Amino acid sequence: MAVESSTPIKLVNQVYATLEKRLAAGRQRFGRSLTLAEKILINHLDDPAAELERGISYVDMHPDRVAMQDATAQMAWLQFMTAGLDEVQVPTTTHCDHLIQAKVESNADLLTAVESNAEVYDFLQSVCARYGAGFWKPGSGIIHQVVLEQYAFPGGMMIGTDSHTPNAGGLGMVAIGVGGADAVDVMTGFAWNVKWPKLIGIHLTGQLNGWAAPKDVILKVADILTVKGGTGAIVEYFGPGARSLSATGKATICNMGAEIGATTSLFAYDDAVGRYLSATVRQDIAQAADAVAQHLRADDEVEANPGDYFDEVIEIDLNTLSPHINGPHTPDLARPVADLGAEAEANGWPLEVSAGLIGSCTNSSYEDITRAASIARDATAKGLTAKIPLLITPGSEQVRATIERDGLLADFEALGATVLANACGPCIGQWDRQDMDDGVPNSIVTSYNRNFPKRNDGYATTHAFVTSPETVIALTLAGRLDFDPATDTLTNADGQEVRLTVGAGEELPANGFDPGADTFVAPPADGSDINVVVSPTSDRLQLLTPFAAWDGQDFTDMPVLLKAQGKCTTDHISMAGPWLTYRGHLENISGNVYMGAVNAFNSEVGTGLDVTDGQHRTYPEIAKRYHEAGISWIAIGDENMGEGSSREHAAMEPRFRGAKVVLARSFARIHETNLKKQGVLALTFANPGDYDLIGENDRISVTGLADLAPGNPVNMTISHADGSSSDIATKHTFSEDQLDWFRAGSALNLIRQQTAG
């Protein structure tokens, strides 16, 4: 299968060719008009006659393409290599953006990354060539910005091994973040199984003005819905306010839908999307979309009466939306920028800002950069300089080359900024921070998406606040959190009080985009003679041994490895930062399993009780000891277990070390799916209060597993240390097909069996 540097018009036309017939059948079936999300999903169903009950039914889908970033791609490719196929069955690309550490500046950091990650990059390029996938070299840019520029198209469907894959929803694409095992399903040509989603409608009216930016829309939505309010739902934006936003502004909003747990987010095809497609040399796709435009937006009746079509409708008036900022430590703690100072003072958060950072997959488009650069240019003209480090990350090589040509990088450098490589960098913990020591309380402001503790610099004492690029610039110039650029002034070098001018962005470059360096490597026509080598002595890559199938027995007398208190995100379960080094080596990266989790029994981080000898050790040490002793165990989670990234390592590590069950009050969507895919029994408390019954020395048995069936409760007995016991009920969301994953030991085991015939 030929993979190109951009989506070919042939693929787009194939998707559009079935729209009219399938949507007509969908309207007849439901007896009503359709939302945009429903239209795209219906057009990608494996079986158009499948049961489609929101939040209940599991359906098989056929996405149009797969995109993977270098950190998650390693494990996905290692899994694919065991599937027994000679070629990927759908267009697939791998993007090198996660492994580049920010330390000095772009060129130096990129050279260091290429040298230090040579083994991984060579593996990824060779495995792409062997199996017919496209490869984007380090320096190409952040996967989601590159996908937006090259591959996303209205009405399409893709999955990606990163939680911020929904960025492509800005172009009207259903783009869903998944774990590597899900990606392998699609890459092998098998259908991708997902729960038919609920629908949340966001009705936007008015138009942004002043310091308000598209980022403020999603910060407001996160404030309303919280980190789990979008779980199991697609968020669809509509209304005149939606049509007033640029394509990249829409992408910003969709990108951070991951922070509310949404399956994905999307906007309709409109003139702004058409302009962006044309500007990125995809006029043929824009023309094709124009011809079927009525199918690439919700039916008129949906916008007229949204309450009849969505499970929840939220109204936001862009005219009155004020600039927002969220944090620290959670993406749903938001408030207007004007209110942050008082709140920070009341909570003892450091008022002085120690660093400002602009970029990430959320806000690194040309428009974002122009708005921030205009403020930087205005500040320089008024005699202001950045009082603290200011770090700028272009989203792609195309964005970098264009803003350099247009003089925007110089605007930042005049302010004292450092320009980093076209990569994720500090957003995902790839920041070798030199200006601050660990243990020193400090505040940073970013245009990123996540702000969990230790997320950016590895320091637990860093308070990270997320806002728009223009507000980041303003707070960096002020050096304080209690600064409102809309009303407050700054003192320049001459002692004059000056006010910052509102950023003036350019939707698209007047002189077109400069593509910059050619960083795409197409696979050969026949890669069957390419040998993908993984050294048996490598500490970064390790071939996988399939997990054992379920032995047909109940799980009895399992010790509790972990009972997590409060947030237990994928960052807590499998940290990023320096651990990205081992994303292709399951045994080595398991050295971080649960190391960030808070122990509910003593509130300590990363340590628990080893029941074999009564000693307290780190969770990775205990898990390794249990694994080596052949002891199966259970982990207990609180609300929204596994919030955050799509990294399947957060499921594979516990499975590798002997976890049989993960029981939580509730799960984040991707983590629950990843656990299921790896053969772990993911359960929730029927009564969330039963979480409190579990003690540190208790043993837990799960019985009746031979009778597991969709919708049926699962019995659990807690044997307490004092000799008493408690019987509790738990729930699961396994479909019959997913139960086959559990019985086979993993979804990949089942695929391999089916591939072998």
Q: How would you explain this protein's 3D organization?
A:
The protein has 757 residues and is of the alpha/beta class. It folds into three domains: 9-320, Aconitase, domain 3; 325-498, Aconitase, domain 3 (2-Layer Sandwich), CATH 3.30.499.10; 555-755, Aconitase, domain 4, CATH 3.20.19. It is 31% helix and 18% strand. The protein contains 26 helices and 30 strands. The chain has a seven-stranded mixed beta barrel with strand order 22-25-26-27-30-29-28. A six-stranded mixed sheet has the order 6-5-2-3-4-21. Helix 9 runs parallel beside helix 11 (247-255) and helix 12 packs antiparallel against helix 13 (283-291). The longest helix has 16 residues, at 366-381. The radius of gyration is 25 Å and the shape is globular. The model has no long low-confidence stretch (mean pLDDT 96).
Please provide a brief summary of the model.
The chain has 757 residues and is an alpha/beta fold. 31% of the residues lie in helices and 18% in strands.
Contiguous low-pLDDT stretches (5 residues minimum) are: none
Structural class: alpha/beta
CATH homologous superfamily of the largest domain? Answer: Aconitase, domain 3
| Count of discrete domains | 3
Strand order of the largest sheet: 22-25-26-27-30-29-28
Quote the average pLDDT.
96
User: What gross morphology would you assign?
Assistant: globular
What Rg is obtained from the alpha carbons, in whole angstroms?
25 Å
Strand portion:
15-25%
CATH architectural name of the largest domain: 2-Layer Sandwich
Helicity level = 25-40%
Please summarize the sheet with the most strands: 7 strands, mixed, barrel
- Number of helical segments with 4 or more residues: 26
Ends: how far apart?
22 Å
The beta-strand count equals 30
**CATH topology heading of the largest domain:** Aconitase, domain 3
